[in-house]
Design brief:
heterodimer; A: 798 residues; alpha+beta; Aldehyde Oxidoreductase, domain 4; Aldehyde Oxidoreductase, domain 3; 7-stranded mixed β-sheet; 20 helices; 25% strand; B: 305 residues; Uridine Diphospho-n-acetylenolpyruvylglucosamine Reductase, domain 2; Uridine Diphospho-n-acetylenolpyruvylglucosamine Reductase, domain 3; Enolase-like, domain 1; 5-stranded antiparallel β-sheet; 4-stranded antiparallel β-sheet
Chain lengths: 798, 305
């Protein structure tokens, strides 16, 4: 499956700030030995032999089982709560209500608006109203049943548009509009006046569950010195610590968070561990004993963050030749009960603003206006999920591009070619894309590999009985690297030892994406040693520097840069020492393959370990510390204009499907996905990201949906909430292109989220191309496709 | 209204006092009898264990019949095929005899759950669980199968048409009886069968609709047909009106299309948030009856005109 097209197109028009950062890094041209190769993943042997410990495998001496009593109401006042009977049950160590909390009764990744334990009201079905710690799981369950809560139900809001009504019940004191953001560029009215065709369409997507394999689990273990130790699988140990400390009423340095190898996160374990950690910690503090909270699968679906549902209204104008003239959009972005990762962290952080910025797609459009509303409802809450607001808006703009092309009578590829970003393009926020813009290259390579023209010409009926039609679909996408906040810094430390071995300290977590393999690879490359010489110290807030969260496709790039900067500090010690030993000036020295040598006379070389020993003995610096912050982001609060993210990854997907027009069933036959990743540090791991991301996007397209009725989740188990199986996923051919990012380690950009994003609209577009069935409300399950074909007046009759 | 959260709790600990492994059928039946209905048979355990974990099933004793001798046969007996009570879906799906002489059943068994589930779950268990769209039950109903049920008091034979009583309920008393074998007629040369399944994904999934058909051809005519559907009623459902409609008629697309229309008059799929709307599933009944008959007739050597 590996077929790598290496196309190093070197192009740049960097800003002064970017130039300065690039000059400091100067890695893009380095000839590579270790980075850029597909070394095996470090955790694989442990995983396949079952030796790797996951959260459920951890225990602590004398730990208690923590459980959460949940609200059965979507919106209600708590009139009274009686825990006496539960407290008296033998084996119950603690029953806590809001009154018992020691510190701040609130947590949240951005705003602490979610109660650790609800005191006066509940805001969604599943809200926590009491906590129990007991000797066994069974006793904990029994205790929950003994707690008596009297509720006064309030009217609930289950459609985000209803939340905006003036007389709508207020879910939070500040009202239901959590964020109201605008992006304005040019003059859309003038743009529409220039258009030959204007289409208006509404697209809608549901709540999505991450369905990570490992249910959430957290252990809070009080230490003898008063420190609270938190252990669990999580993407954001530092954000967790930042929340647990005020909830316990202690300084941040009194909380220690140790990250455990994660059984899948996909953004979901950015904030659900905050929830569990705060709750386990207050139980542990109250009892003085370790407390473990493990969610059952149904609880994961009911309680933890989801992908935000959105209703997206688009009005787009285009000229006859396919040139876009104006884009107007409205997003009703449903936040649900709590703020989680939705609201803005200035200038451009948070999923909502990100969705707004991405909404017009990777196209040059002179006139743009987007109104984006982030709205509280009495549903579960939206958080981070692989793409952070971008998958939703791609589903809208990529379908719109196809609908426009059909209206104009041009192909789906032609309209994209006409408008796609190129180097120097100006985005809808007015940002000039200054470097590493490989979008058009991905379109070209994807079409080439997929044989788009041939396949498009061959679409039509599959069988003589005219029950099945074959079709093809395309979608493009872009995704930022980093998170658009002012404080998106990332730190690393490198400790060189006298035998040449290295410890790498990083707060970036491993969740299957390969960070624990790629980061040592970068460290080894910079020092001129082998990846196995670098041992990675697992994230532990007492040991590793603040690295920010493992989100936003930022790990390889931001942490990679921090590691390079840290490694250079110890490399300086090595080069100084080697220079003395070889009597060669440092400028002539290079390190590669555990040797330090004279570039002009490579026979003149020293073993890396020998130089390390000499450096140590000479009192040279053996610990390096690196810190890397991307160029300062900007986004005007009123106009949505600025440069919110410093670099983007680009992609084009193409897929061939067969639609059974009598039943609405879909078969995916072939899939090609092309990416401009800047530089593939570990191509094989990158392909894994691509395959997994496409599979997830397929689920979004065809089957995934949290079904809610009056706020109650109807499909909390994986029997009802469907994710794709191996049989549903087609053969996926990745195409990897490398358009150097001057601000990335050896030219790399982020890749974690991008593969997930164009997959969904590519499939939806292929279904429509095959059958006329355009499904504007996801998922496109057989029934929705069936009715969409009917609504279109039947399949094409050629 | 809101779900009672305690009903969602899965218990990692099974509260079962005894797990018995009998050496013979007689011993197994005696064990069941001696517990007066509080014991439950377990074979593959793919339904029993989840029910115990969610506390939907309340029994204190499990009697493991998976190691009983002589229960795993798939054999021809004259014109009949006899399947033992211990036969798994994997074994049935892979059996050349069933593939050749009851292909609808082989197809259905291949759809059950995942490979892991098919390797342990039995056809007998699929029937006893009494689910309306069970992938072995629906084809067996179309094949006019009958089952032998044993208890400490003796044996009885029940046709499947009288076996399914309601959702999760059958003529078998799961606390006292064991389904020991399944018998049905092998397909003759002028007969064919088919099994169709509509679902949102390709494995491990509740179906939107399933349809099993057994058809007997008489030259270019349909001599008779058996059509079973699920889930369109609380139990696997025989679509008698459509069966009567096609009997003796020429095998034309018009006949088959009308059979589909006829079927929608009697079967009654519900609106389901997870499986689909009544309207859609009714449309699918039409398509599946037509396609099922077409495929079964083709296997019988009769091409629909």
């Amino acid at each position: 499956m590996q077929d790598k097209t290496q196309e190093k197109t070197k192009t740049q028009v960097l800003t002064r700030e970017e130039n300065e950062l690039a000059r400091r890094l100067r890695t893009a041209d380095k000839p590579l030995t270790v980075a850029g190769t597909s070394i095996g993943r470090r955790d694989d042997p442990l995983k396949v032999t079952g030796k790797l410990k996951y959260g459920a495998d951890y225990s602590a001496e004398g730990f208690l089982f923590g459980k959460i009593l949940r609200s059965p109401h979507a919106h209600a006042l708590i009139k009274s709560i009686n825990v006496k009977k539960a407290q008296e049950l033998e084996g119950v160590a603690a029953v806590l209500t809001a009154e018992d909390l020691p510190g701040r009764n609130g947590f949240g990744a951005i705003i602490p608006d979610q109660p650790v334990i609800c005191g006066d009201k509940v805001r969604f079905v599943g809200d926590g109203v009491a906590l129990v710690a007991a000797e066994t799981e069974t006793i904990a369950h029994q205790a929950l049943k003994l707690i008596e809560v009297e509720y006064e139900p309030l009217p609930g809001i289950f459609d985000p548009r209803d939340a905006m009504a003036e007389d709508a019940p207020k879910i939070h004191e500040g009202g239901n509009i959590l964020s109201d953001d605008k992006m304005v560029k040019g003059d859309v009215d003038a743009g529409f006046a220039e258009a030959d065709v204007i289409l208006e369409r509404t697209y809608q997507v549901p709540f999505l569950e991450h369905a990570y394999l490992e249910p959430d689990t957290t252990m809070a273990i009080p230490q003898p010195d008063g420190v609270m130790l938190i252990e669990g699988p999580m993407q954001a140990p530092f954000t967790t610590r930042r929340n647990v400390a005020p909830v316990l009423g202690v300084p941040i340095n009194q909380v220690r968070v140790r990250q455990i190898h994660m059984g899948g996160g996909f953004g979901g374990k950015e904030d659900s561990p905050i929830d569990l950690s705060c709750r386990a910690a207050v139980l542990a503090q109250a009892t003085g004993r370790p407390v473990k909270i493990t969610l059952e699968r149904e609880e994961v679906t009911i309680q933890t963050a989801k992908r935000h549902p959105m209703i997206m209204e688009l009005k787009v104008g285009v000229k006859k030749d396919g040139t876009l003239t104006a884009f107007q959009g409205v997003i009703y972005d449903e936040q649900g009960a709590y703020a989680s990762l939705g609201p803005k962290i200035p200038p451009a952080g948070g999923s909502h603003v990100h969705a707004m910025v991405m909404m017009p797609g990777p196209y040059e459009i002179p006139n743009v206006k987007v109104d984006a509303y982030l709205l509280y409802t009495n549903h579960p809450y939206g958080g981070a999920m692989r793409g952070f607001g971008a998958p939703q808006v791609h589903i809208a703009h990529e379908q719109m591009m196809d609908e426009l092309a059909a209206e104009l009578g041009i192909t789906a590829v032609d309209i994209r070619e006409k408008n796609a970003f190129r180097l120097g393009s100006q985005t809808a926020t007015g940002q000039v894309l200054s470097q590493s813009v490989g979008l058009r290259e991905t379109l070209e390579s994807c079409a080439d590999r997929f044989k788009w023209d041939e396949r498009l010409a061959a679409t039509g009926w599959v069988d003589q009985a005219h029950t099945k039609r074959r079709g093809v679909g395309v979608a493009m996408g872009w995704y930022r690297t980093s998170i658009g906040t002012n404080g998106d810094g990332c730190g690393a430390a490198v400790h060189l030892h006298e035998d040449g071995s290295v410890l790498l300290y990083s707060g970036i977590t491993e969740m299957g994406q390969g960070a624990f393999t790629v980061l040592p690879q970068i460290c080894a490359e910079e020092l001129g040693i082998m990846p196995e010489d670098v041992r990675l110290v697992k994230p532990d807030t007492d040991l590793v520097p603040e690295s920010g969260p493992t989100v936003g496709s930022r790990s390889t790039t931001l942490m990679g840069n921090a590691i390079i900067l840290a490694a250079r500090q110890v490399k300086e010690s090595l080069m100084d020492t080697a220079s003395m030993m070889l009597m060669v000036p440092t400028e002539r020295l290079d390190a590669k393959g555990r040797k330090i040598y004279d570039r002009e006379n490579p026979d003149k070389s020293l073993d890396f370990a020998a130089v390390a020993a000499r450096a140590m003995a000479a009192g040279k610096r053996m610990i390096g510390q690196g810190w890397w912050t991307p160029p300062v982001p900007s986004l005007d609060g009123h106009t949505g204009q600025g440069s919110p993210y410093h670099v983007y990854t680009y992609s084009t997907h193409m897929v061939q499907v067969v639609v059974d027009v009598e039943t609405g069933e879909v078969e995916l036959e072939d899939y090609v996905a092309a990416f401009d990743v800047g530089k593939a540090i570990n191509p094989k791991a990158l392909e894994g990201q691509i395959e997994g991301g496409v599979a997830m996007g397929l689920g979004y397209a065809l089957m995934e949906e949290v079904v809610l009725v009056e706020g109650v989740t109807q499909n909390p188990s994986l029997q009802g909430y469907l994710v794709p199986t191996m049989l549903d996923v087609p053969d996926i051919q990745p195409v990897i292109l490398e358009v150097t990012n001057e601000l990335g380690p050896y030219g790399a950009k982020g890749i974690g989220e991008m593969p997930n994003i164009p997959a969904t609209p590519a499939i939806i577009n292929a279904i429509a191309q095959a059958s006329n069935g355009r499904v504007r409300r996801l998922p496109a399950d057989p029934e929705r496709i069936f009715w969409a074909i009917k609504e279109a007046g039947g399949p094409p009759q050629d | 209204m809101a779900l009672a959260f305690e009903k969602l709790h899965w218990h990692s600990k099974l509260e079962v006092a005894e797990y018995l492994v009998p050496a013979s059928l007689t011993e197994a039946l005696d064990m069941l009898a001696s517990h007066g209905g509080k014991a439950r048979v377990i074979a593959g355990g793919t339904d029993v264990i989840p029910e115990l974990r969610s506390r939907k099933l309340d029994v204190s004793v499990l009697v493991d019949v998976s190691r009983l001798p002589d229960m795993d046969g798939i054999e021809a007996d004259g014109d009949d095929i006899v399947i033992g009570g211990g036969v798994t879906h994997a074994a049935a799906a892979a059996s050349p005899l069933i593939q050749d002489k009851a292909s609808a059943l082989a197809t259905g068994c291949g759809w059950v759950g995942s490979p892991q589930i098919r390797n342990v779950a039995t056809l007998a268990g699929n029937l006893v669980s009494g689910q309306p769209a069970a992938d072995a039950s629906v084809p067996l109903l179309a094949l006019d199968a009958e089952v032998t049920i044993a208890s400490a008091k003796g044996e009885r034979v029940v046709p499947l048409s009288e076996f399914f009583l309601g959702l999760g309920q059958t003529a078998l008393d799961p606390g006292r009886e064991i389904l020991t074998s399944i018998r049905f007629q092998a397909l003759a040369d002028n007969q064919g069968s088919a099994y169709l399944r509509l679902a949102k994904r390709k494995a491990l999934n509740l179906p939107i609709l399933v349809c099993a058909v057994k058809a007997t051809a008489d030259g270019g005519n349909i001599a008779s047909a058996a059509i079973a559907l699920g889930p369109v009623a609380p139990v696997p459902f025989r679509e008698r009106a459509a069966e009567e409609f096609v009997a003796g008629k020429p095998a034309t697309m018009e006949t088959l299309t009308q059979a589909g229309e006829t079927a929608t008059a009697t079967c009654n799929p519900r609106d389901s948030l997870l499986r689909g709307s009544c309207d859609y599933r009714t449309e699918m009944v039409k398509v599946f009856v037509r396609r099922g008959l077409t495929a079964a007739l083709a296997q019988a050597g009769c091409t629909v005109k």
